[in-house]
Amino acid sequence: MIGLRVDSGFCYKIGYDLPEIGDSNTSPTVSKLRLFENGVELGPAHSTHRDIRNFGLGQFSHWGNTLYFSTSDNSNPLTNGRKYTYTMK
């Protein structure tokens, strides 16, 4: 989780050089990123950053080169001991 930092509320963010660019204002659902917590898929994808911050519960957004996400139970991903992975399928 190198580079992971708190955004606000239940939202955490991390910037990576991913093989594909994520969503944008002109293409709000182009990202194919799928996010997993201990092998269980999180979602929904393409969530608004406001909803991720306010409600969490696994919502995420791959926006540009940044992943904004929340854990399934709104715990801190730096200390909850879970493994987070992604695919771009």
Plain-language structure description:
The protein is mainly beta and 89 residues long. The chain is built from 1 helix and 7 strands. 7% of the residues lie in helices and 30% in strands. The chain has a 4-stranded antiparallel sheet with strand order 1-2-6-5. Strand 3 and strand 4 form a beta hairpin. The longest helix is centred in the middle third of the chain and has 6 residues.
Question: Notable features of this structure?
Answer:
single chain; 89 residues; mainly beta; four-stranded antiparallel β-sheet
Can you summarize this structure?
This protein is mainly beta.
Total number of strands: 7
Which structural class should the secondary elements be placed in?
A: mainly beta
Shape estimate: globular
Written as H for each helix and E for each strand, in order along the chain, the element string is EEEEHEEE
- Determine the fraction of residues in helical runs and give it as a percent range: under 10%
The largest beta-sheet arranges its strands as 1-2-6-5
Radius of gyration: 12 Å
Strand content: 25-35%
Distance between the termini: 21 Å
Largest sheet: 4 strands, antiparallel
Give the integer mean of the pLDDT values. 95
Which helices and strands, and how do they pair?
Elements (H helix, E strand, L loop, with lengths): L4 E4 L2 E5 L18 E4 L2 E2 L7 H6 L5 E4 L2 E4 L14 E4 L2
Antiparallel strand pairs: 1-2, 2-6, 3-4, 3-7, 5-6
